[in-house]
Amino acid sequence: MTFYDGIELDNTKKSITYEALSYSWGFSTETMPIRCNGHDISVLTTLYDALIHLRLRDRPRFIWIDALCINQADNEEKSVQVFRMSSVYYKAVKVIAYLGQTYTCCGSALQLLDKVDFDMSHADLCHEGFKQLLLGVQLLLKAPWFTRTWVRQEVFMANSLDVQIGFVSLDWQRFSMNVTALLTQGQSMFNAMGDTYEDRLLTRIPASLHLLCQGGAEDKAKVVLKAVHHSGSHRRDLDVVLRGSKHFEASDPRDFVYGVASMTTAKFDHTSSTFQPNPSEEASIEIDYRLPVKSVYEKTTIYLMQ
Q1: Which of 81, 78, 143 lies closest to 110, judged by CA?
Q2: Predicted TM-score of the model (pTM)
Q3: CB 151 within 8 A of CB 22
């Protein structure tokens, strides 16, 4: 077990270890009330749902959550804190990717992904139960989390990551490996049998998942280091990463740049086989939410062309 430096509690000299939440804010403005540090706060329903399923009834649980730890209404504070977010997710003992609980079958699909056997015969594949599993996995992959641009950095920097739906969770490495293997096996089987359009939809691997899997802890050294850090140029690396942004979404267009900039400046540590934040390099892309979108894109373009 590796222990990471924690964060210091405000107005104390006590440092604590913590987990970090990765979730989709969504586009709904509906809120629910919570009480935090003695204050009544309204949070989006997506976060409220996550808090209900993550809280422990018998002991405290320290979780870093952007909506609560950053004043989203203060662009100056947000700029400073977003600059630190790669360190926040790197130092977390675990990052929790909370997908929500939109469909009951998605939780069941997540449980089955931990147990599924990929050595299947044609008869197994034709079985209706297997197709239902594929359908459940595809519904799961439609969760907004998979196309949120910020999760690229959060997955990339995490040293330990769990995917969670409701109360069901699964290690990211096992999740990404089993989903990819399941869909690939399905493609092979369906092709051999003469697939239909519906079959191809059931076994489609989303481009966003492919990019996120490249950021998984096990593959960072052999895939991301070659694909993203191969050039030795942060500008060229940022260009490569930005090209993948077409598969993701952001409510604020500036986040297409700010949400991935630290991925191309992180240092690879050969001892731990992890990428570590590199603040001295991150200054090459200034994070400033006071700037209009047009200025951010112009500055980024100039940086890439230098």
Answers
A1: 143
A2: 0.82
A3: yes
Candidates 102, 34, 29; CA nearest to 63 is: 34
Q: How far apart are CA 123 and CA 189, in angstroms?
A: 10
DSSP string, 88-145: HHHH-SEEEEE---S-HHHHHHHHHHTT------HHHHHSHHHHHHHHHHHHHHTSGG
Instruction: Give Rg (Cα) of the chain.
Output: 20
**Residue 15: which region, alpha, beta or left (left: phi > 0; alpha: psi -120 to 50)?**
beta
For tokens 């870093």, name the residue. Answer: 64
Instruction: Quick: pLDDT tens for 203-240.
Output: 777 888 877 876 444 344 334 444 444 455 566 678 88
Checking if the pLDDT of 113 tops 90, the result is: no
- Give the position of tokens 């740049």: 257
Map 51-65 to HEC letters: HHHHCCCCCCCCEEC
Paired sense of beta strands 39-44 and 161-165, if any: unpaired
pLDDT at 279 over 50: yes
Phi, psi dihedral angles at 207 (to 5 degrees):
-60, -35
Greater confidence (95 vs 122) lies with 95
CB 161 within 8 A of CB 98: no
Contacts (Cβ under 8 Å, ≥6 apart) of 155: 22, 95, 97, 161, 172, 212, 215, 216
Main-chain phi, psi angles of 96, to 5 degrees: -110, 115
Label residue 25 exposed, middle or buried (CB < 10 Å: 0-12, 13-18, 19+). Answer: middle
**What token pair was written down for 80?**
């400073």
Residue 243 reports pLDDT greater than 70? yes
Which residues, in sequence order, are CB contacts of 200 under 8 Å at separation 6+? 187, 190
